[in-house]
Design a protein that fits this description.
By secondary structure, this protein is mainly alpha-helical. The chain contains 3 helices and no strands.
Length: 49
């Protein structure tokens, strides 16, 4: 059940990530490195599309 809710949460976050990819780039400067790298990867994928 926990896995299903996490997957649904990820799907709900996708539009938010698309809208805020620029903000996430800025936030990435202040976050710990692994999280910043994943955010930059997501933002890059969003921009490629």
């Amino acid at each position: 059940m926990m896995v299903v809710s996490l997957i649904l949460l990820c799907f709900l976050m996708i539009p938010y990530l698309i809208l805020c990819s620029r903000c996430l780039h800025i936030l990435g400067l202040f976050l710990p490195l692994p999280l910043a790298h994943s955010i930059k990867a997501v933002s890059f994928l969003v921009e490629v599309d």
